[in-house]
Design goal:
4 helices; single chain; alpha+beta
Length: about 140
Amino acid sequence: MANDERGLQPLPGPLEQLVRDLAQRGYTQTTDESGESGIWRRVELRAPGHATDRAVRIEQDRGLWDVAIRLADAWFSTYDVLLAVDGAPHSSRTESYDERRATTLAVVDRLPGDAKQLALIQQRLADYRDQAMARYTRSNQQ
């Protein structure tokens, strides 16, 4: 894939569409940067009405693209956030770029604005992290 006119690695089609979808929802692009070597790129979009506490990050690191959402002061996988919004047990899976776009839009559209509900989602995300760390620790002790 050829670099764009600025020398940046282009976003895959579904993630490029995600940027347009978020712009239609009022998100503002605040960052589009890349390392000199071109092995990473970061695009960030801020949610309307949120100074820094809610944003979407599309990031490439050594060829792989990922999407994360910022809640309060931390970045989370959009898949994890969707599970937390649904109150579902934690799981992990690989998503295609089309799935990442759909997951991100589902999170953006369904994320509550109510502080109590948002705190519950953040607690679920912290629980997911703790569960993952416990599994990792157990696997390294064997």
